[in-house]
Design a protein that fits this description.
eight-stranded mixed sheet; 13 strands; Nucleotidyltransferase, domain 5; 395 residues; binds adenosine-5'-diphosphate; globular
Length: 395
C-alpha cells in the first residue's frame, strides 16, 4: 500500500517542501516546490517528480502573505487534492538545532516542542522559522504526526575533545558546544557511500558540503567524528555571506574600537562576509568564476585555501584519509573548485583525474589513487523522509 510523507524545510523567508510517495519499500518524489519571499512578495511554485512546473502563483501585496502560517495554509490547500490516494501519514521537519539532548529524529509532542523552543537561543536566526513551520502544520494538518529531524543530531557522536571549547566547563554544561550542522546531508552521504564505494565507506572520509552554507565533516566508519562548524553555523569555512573561522579577538576589537553591538556584528558576520565580503561582487560562486575582477579570484583563493587546510585538519582528527567526497551546489557543480581542492590535497595521496572531474565524476581520482575522490549529490529531503518513516515505525 502506498503512503505519502510531506517534508518541510521552513527558513526565515521561504518554505521548501517535497511530497514523497512510499510504496513497496521505495520513496518516490511526487512533488517538490517552495514558497519564497514570505513577508515581502510571496511566490509559490510546484514541480512534479519529472521536474515539470505544475503550479505557480504569486502575491503582489506583501500584506496578504505576511507569514509562515499564511504560506502553510496556501500549501495545505494546494496539497489536499494532490496527495497520493492513501493520504498523508506524517510530516518530517528539518529543524536546525536539537541541542545537547536530541541525537535522533523524534515525533513531536508537547515536551519536544518545549525543548525546541528552549533551543532558540542556540540558533536565533533559524530555529524560530522551523518552529513556525511546525506550528502552522499542526494548525492546517491536524491529526497528522510531525517528526523533527535535526541538523545537529548526526554529530552527537563526537568525542568530548571534539565537542567542547577551551572555556570553563560550566559553559559546556549549559550548552556552549561544537554541535556541527548539515548533519542530514552528511548522514545521507554516509549511507550513499556504503552503496557506491563500500570499502571507503568503512574507512576515513572527509565530506565537503559546499553550498551557500559550507562545512566539512570527518566520517570514520560512517560516523561523524568532527566537523568544521561549531556552536553556530558561522564557524569553519567561509561561505556565501558568512565569515567562517575567525579569531574571537576580532570580535572584541569590533566591540571596543568600532563600538559595534551584537546585532551589528551578527549582520557583519552572517550577511556581509565570506565570498561576498571578500569579493565585494557576489555571494554566488557562478558569478565569481565568470568574473575577471581580481577580487573574485581572491575570494575563490581564500575559499579553496580554507577547504584544503580543513581537509588536512580533519584527516589529522581521524589519523588518516581514505576518501574525499564533494556535495551540495558548489561541490556537485563546480569542476574548477573541485580541481583546486584536489590539487591542494595531493600531499595526502589524492591523485586527481581531470577528465573525470570535467564530466562531474562520479569518481574524480585515478584508479590507483591512495585517496578516492567522489562527487555525490546530497538529498537532505530524502533523508528526512526516511527518518520520518522510521520514527513513525512505518519501515
Ligand atoms: P544552499 O546552501 O542554499 O542549499 P546550494 O547547495 O544550492 O546552497 O549551493 C549554492 C551555491 O552553488 C551557489 O554559490 C552557486 O553559485 C553554486 N553553484 C551552483 N551551480 C554551480 C556551477 N555550475 N558552478 C559553480 N557554482 C555553482
Amino acid at each position: 500500500m502506498s503512503k505519502a510523507i510531506l517534508v518541510l524545510n521552513a527558513g526565515s523567508s521561504s518554505i521548501k517542501f517535497t511530497v514523497f510517495n512510499y510504496h513497496d519499500g521505495e520513496l518516490h518524489v511526487c512533488y517538490n516546490g517552495q514558497i519564497e519571499g514570505i513577508g515581502t512578495r510571496p511566490h509559490f511554485k510546484v514541480k512534479d517528480g519529472d521536474e515539470r512546473v505544475v503550479y505557480e502563483t504569486g502575491w503582489e501585496n506583501p500584506l496578504l502573505g505576511k507569514g509562515h502560517a499564511y504560506a502553510l495554509e496556501q500549501l495545505a490547500t494546494w496539497l489536499d487534492p494532490h496527495l497520493p490516494e492513501a493520504g498523508l501519514i506524517g510530516v518530517g521537519h528539518r529543524v536546525v538545532h536539537g541541542g545537547p539532548k536530541y541525537s535522533a529524529p523524534i515525533v513531536i509532542d508537547g515536551t519536544v516542542l518545549h525543548d525546541l523552543e528552549s533551543f532558540v537561543s542556540l540558533a536565533p536566526l533559524h530555529q524560530p522559522a522551523n518552529l513556525a513551520g511546525i506550528d502552522a502544520t499542526m494548525d492546517f494538518l491536524p491529526g497528522i504526526p510531525n517528526v523533527a529531524c535535526f541538523d545537529t543530531a548526526f554529530h552527537r557522536s563526537h568525542s568530548l575533545v571534539a565537542d567542547r571549547y577551551g572555556l570553563p566547563t560550566e559553559f559546556y554544561t549549559e550548552g556552549v558546544r561544537r554541535y556541527g550542522f548539515h548533519g542530514l546531508s552528511y548522514e545521507y552521504i554516509a549511507r550513499a557511500l556504503k552503496r557506491i564505494d563500500p570499502s571507503i565507506a568503512q574507512g576515513k572520509v572527509v565530506v565537503a558540503h559546499l553550498g551557500n552554507g559550507s562545512s566539512m565533516c570527518a566520517l570514520s566508519g560512517g560516523r561523524s567524528v568532527d566537523s568544521t562548524m561549531g556552536f553556530t553555523a558561522l564557524d569553519g569555512l567561509p561561505m556565501g555571506t558568512r565569515c567562517g573561522q575567525i579569531d574571537p579577538g576580532v570580535l572584541l576589537y569590533l566591540m571596543r574600537e568600532k563600538r559595534m553591538g551584537a546585532e551589528q556584528i551578527e549582520g557583519l558576520l552572517y550577511k556581509r562576509s565570506g565570498l561576498l565580503g571578500i569579493s565585494g561582487i557576489s555571494m554566488d560562486m557562478r558569478n565569481l568564476e565568470s568574473s575577471l575582477d581580481p577580487r573574485a579570484a581572491e575570494a575563490i583563493d581564500y575559499y579553496v585555501f580554507r577547504i584544503v587546510r580543513e581537509t588536512g585538519a580533519l584527516a589529522a582528527a581521524m589519523g588518516g584519509l581514505d576518501g574525499l567526497v564533494f556535495t551540495a551546489g558548489i561541490g556537485e557543480n563546480s569542476s574548477l573548485i573541485r580541481e583546486l581542492i584536489c590539487r591542494g590535497s595531493a600531499w595526502l595521496g589524492l591523485a586527481f583525474d581531470p577528465e573525470a572531474n570535467a564530466g562531474h565524476g562520479p569518481r574524480i581520482s585515478t584508479p590507483g589513487s591512495k585517496v578516492a575522490a567522489w562527487v555525490i549529490p546530497t538529498d537532505e529531503e530524502r533523508m528526512i523522509a526516511l527518518h520520518t518513516l522510521s520514527a513513525l515505525r512505518e519501515v
